[in-house]
Specification:
Four copies of one chain form a homotetramer. By secondary structure, chain A is α/β, with parallel strands linked by helices. Helix content of chain A is 35%, strand content 20%. The two termini of chain A are 30 Å apart. Chains in contact: A-B, A-C, A-D, B-C, B-D, C-D. The A-B interface holds A 147, 151-152, 154, 156, 160, 163-164, 212, 214, 216, 218, 227, 229, 231, 239, 241, 243, 245, 247-251, 258, 260-265, 278-281, 285, 366-371 and B 147, 151-152, 154, 156, 160, 163-164, 212, 214, 216, 218, 227, 229, 231, 239, 241, 243, 245, 247-251, 258, 260-265, 278-281, 285, 366-371. Strand 13 of chain B pairs antiparallel with strand 13 (285-289) of chain D.
């Protein structure tokens, strides 16, 4: 693992998610730019090989015998350094799990896409929210035509933790996220807007083609957006509304999506992730609950507990790791991975994420132009 | 009452709402253009004086002695005929309760505003959703500064009943609502979008100054919008997102609003109207329930039952009638009505409703212009 | 109306419920033992004939010509005086709507049952909670066999308003309810336990045959139960658990019931009365919502608004009045009332309510005897 | 690990829970009485040392050098064999994590308690539901006096999976649970009733002293209870109602508890485990959400994700393992474990669980005796 040390929130999540199937072992790491922090984290996690620097790690791991060296690397650093770390890992022959947004800039994203294609390595991006079983269920049922032709998708990612300028206080994860030099062009739109956008494309199977947006900064003095809203046009006539905000005071982590088609409407909310509502035009709505026998194969494949035993965020995260590892193993065995194994966000999702940020920034600060085409490069 | 006969949904609602305080009596009516229907309705409702025609009704009622004639008239017809009926009633000296949208066109709305001002009659418009006690509570607390400076309002009015082209089947209320010749320029935006917009202004106390919108028709062959979405700019820096739709299959009548300020966020949903959530940045969210002692005076004034005894749509409707009558009585007694008595939608709300439709139509079909200023005339 | 004046909670509820169909007019009353209060209430409600005393009222109304005198009387006094008032009204030829519990003692209940039978008058008891459309839906579906053989009913009526000894403060409705001299043997068990019991019999169609109970008083100094819990055995092998309490601090008016049979389980809660959940053994649970086309005829008959327009407590109350009046009119027309018209709580429900209190009191203070047979007389 | 192989539900849960902190490694196992099944499970989980028999495992592991042998054993077999397996492990010097109910009989439970005391080993019982952070929060706040003197606890554990006689079909986990020869005297009361009972004592800090109960079998032909209901008397005047059932068709795994005291009421439901409601007598109810800064130290200690990132059943399970291991490490280091470290169900909880079953069986089939004292031996 690169990053994740000290008081980082996401490092321990990655670790727990990776461990869940007893199929992955944490063998080495460079958990912080501060070596003392890195050592302390490594000791707490019982890791033998702790490196001062990610370059050193890649070099020395690559030099180890095949049965000793790490098989893949999880990169959980701020996105400013994603590209160089991921590219080096791929060059050194390691498969990669990377936090989102994939890179700092669209240019880096394009280059990373090429790098993945050239090296043929397996690459996963942790758009965790698309890995919940209830989300898989929506995708499977929409693919099977249950909703008929799709019409509307309303997606939101609502937080309140940046409703004051807490980045000035230090000691929290707000600093780099609100600093354009570290997070890139997008603040809220990159940090959480990308999750909302990804969810909408993942579930519906459609792609945004143009959008009309506004990026706003509500907290005085903040040099980057803390609120992003967009009207979306997708392929095949689907329309969407997306609202991502970090200034809705008191909101925790509300990711909610509704998708309507001719025949019905799905409704899901991440904070109660095991419940999915489907509304019908001509009969009572149904409460679909994960872990039950009536679920689709795709949802069951991504479920660990029987009905009524709630699964949460770490289990969703673990689904990405499990499918990533299954794909790695399939390739290693010379076998084509199944669609279920390949069902994790990849470098194309990552590239489209950067294109989404680019398009939103282009549209979001323009007072005149209404509809902006999806930016490809 | 003018209109409301036969299988109309809203006539009996008006009647029940009006009767609730035992302070209003239904004395005469012209319930349908079909006299037989009108007579049948009148008999069912124990009404003595049933007229063939609203003009006849206004004339003859006006000719009765003061203690016999009707005191005010409720007009519950399609908005095509609102102006002529309301204007005549005002001219004949009657106070008026009118269904929304107020008129067929903005021009009529301006003229009706002038007519109300000239005659000095009391005029109420039934934007029912703003009359729920929990909505009053939000208004009262925002006025008192509980949320601090406002930032965001997300409002939706989501229905699914027009997700098929049921207007072709007849026998339902879809016909005139989807016919521009009868409903005016706006379909969904006029029928339910105006409610969502009104709620946002009523609660926040701010006014929309410009908007960016899209009107869409999802059901093939329908000659008017069935979906309306807008980004809103209000006075004092408040931003909003509004989505009104009639094609979200399976949705009943979901009117939901969230308002965020620096200090907290309100959340309310019309289908569970007695519960209001307030989220805080630094402590647990609270569940505010109507009928309890901690409610504001404004909410209590509009509440009939103790906590835990749910009130519904008819009670909200009845609040408009009660406050309207209180105002009429105050004026009759030569007294200035209190703010609580005057707290019902009036002709200015109605005028702004038509301006909202006008602005939405102007913005909603324009592919180029992003922000459209609020249309005043 | 007898009673209901001053700050009584239930008088205005009765009035609004009665008025809702524009089919009932309040023509006379004796609203309080205090004549000044009675006069004030009568003036506020526009009532012409206000009497000093219920006896005077019965006498004088009975002496009026048939087309002038009241048709029926609503008695909304404490249950201490129910019997004498209701019996006199019946004797004088008036139909009666009476608040629950029906009488002060089981003996009075038996006598009132006989009186109703002798006079042939129409008699309704306001067990309001059984009049919600969703409750009707459960009854209709169970009768149709949707749940298969019934097994379990869990019913609760949970309040917190008596969790302190507020009856000592005066000025509220707690005084007579906690005074055995005024309320009878049962406190909580009579005031709200009877509602819970009635709901369980109404919905399931089964009758309690024996029970095991405990009555408790949690608030020091209170001379009557404020908490009642019972295990219930019904006809046909149905088992139940009933918990009625007034000391669950902070609870408003939570009446909740679940009924399980071989095939499914119903779940309903009074504070969100328009939603009914039905769970199935082999497929997703369904959300049944009042006002929709798929509802049973019985539920539709008791519904006033379309789906998504919430109905509440007053509308449920109004269903009792409407069905009562429909029955009165049918009888007056020499027609046998339909089952839908007769669907309101009657004198047998009232008698069984007193038997329930009697049985609960007998069982609830007995430390030794476990199962107590339903007390018939 | 002993047990957990093949299609067992609980084995993989134990494993994932144990792995979550990267502090436990699965080094050996005897996963099934069928050696082939055991080998297959072991291979899937990357386990080196797989034994044919738990006796062989204990013997041979004990003979290994201290730094090679297992440190503790998780026993996840049916309760019929718990005693002999756990006793042997303790005798061989291993700490033990054991599934509930602790043993087959009360006699075994008493002996196991003595064994734990004699050997001084650390022993944990997986009453998982008491390990959720929201449950810890209730315990911490009640200990701090937030509710005042406690009055009522209503607890339920409701399932529907045994509403048909699926144990005859084979291939599921119903077989041994409904066979008294394998599960002991209690069916539903032992399998899930014990969880409900444990939760009530854990949260309130009070102990049941006597109870009045009924055990029932609703599914024809089943030789053991599938429904258990009890009225409970606790120390310090607390009263309770407990309902555990496996025949509420369509219910998944509803564990719900409410606790009322003089000042407020807690409400929690396991299927949405991150939300806790607290109701107050004099102000709005609060929504307490895990992961937020206002939570108690005890809850935070048992939380892994920030607010809005849901934790589930596996994380609760993992809290038991983590606290168990922390206690083991503290003892190994010669340090007294902290109260937080010792906060997992122990052999006394296990013994009381068997006493609960014994008392419920004694009371539950007795038609005459109402209150049965808690059975100590």
């Amino acid at each position: 693992m690169v990053g994740g040390g000290g008081n980082a929130m996401i490092g321990p999540i990655h670790l727990r998610a990776a461990l869940m199937e007893n199929d992955i072992e944490l063998v080495c790491g460079c958990f912080s730019r501060n070596y003392e922090t890195s050592l302390a984290t490594g000791r707490a996690w019982h890791v033998q090989r702790i490196y001062r620097d990610y370059r050193e790690m890649m070099e020395r791991e690559a030099a180890l015998p095949a049965d000793e060296r790490m098989d893949f690397v999880a990169i959980v650093t701020p996105n400013k350094v994603h590209y160089e770390q991921a590219a080096l890992a791929l060059d050194k022959g390691f498969d990669v799990v990377l936090d989102k947004p994939m890179t700092f800039s669209l240019d880096e994203a394009l280059r990373l896409r090429d790098k993945v294609n050239q090296t043929g390595r397996t690459f996963a991006l942790t758009h965790t929210y698309s890995a919940y079983p209830a989300v898989k269920e929506m995708k499977a049922r929409i693919q099977a035509g249950e909703l008929g032709r799709l019409r509307l998708v309303d997606v939101e990612y609502t937080q309140g933790w940046l409703s004051q300028r807490i980045e000035l206080q230090g000691g929290n994860n707000a600093g780099w996220r609100t600093d354009p030099a570290l997070s890139g062009k997008g603040g809220c739109v990159g940090d959480i807007g990308t999750h909302a956008w990804h969810l909408s494309e993942y579930i519906t199977g459609e792609r945004v083609t143009e959008l009309c947006a506004e990026l706003s900064t509500f907290v005085e003095g903040r040099p980057i957006d803390d609120d992003a809203v967009a009207l979306l046009h997708f392929t095949n006539g689907l329309h969407g509304v997306l609202h991502a905000t970090q200034v809705a005071t008191g909101e925790e982590n509300r990711i909610a999506i509704r998708v309507s088609g001719e025949k019905g409407t799905f409704e899901w909310q991440q904070m109660e992730p095991n419940t999915l509502i489907i509304r019908w035009g001509d009969r009572p709505a149904e409460i679909i609950r994960t872990g039950n026998g009536y679920m689709s194969g795709l949802a069951k494949w991504n479920t660990r507990t029987p009905g009524g035993h709630p699964e949460g965020y770490i289990e969703a995260f673990a689904n990405i790791y499990r499918n990533f590892v299954a794909t790695v193993r399939a390739k290693a065995a010379g076998r084509t991975p199944t669609p279920e194994e390949l069902d994790f966000p990849n470098v194309i999702d990552g590239l489209r994420g950067l294109q989404f940020i680019e398009t939103m920034v282009k549209a979001g600060y323009d007072r005149d132009k209404k509809w902006v085409k999806w930016v490809e490069e």
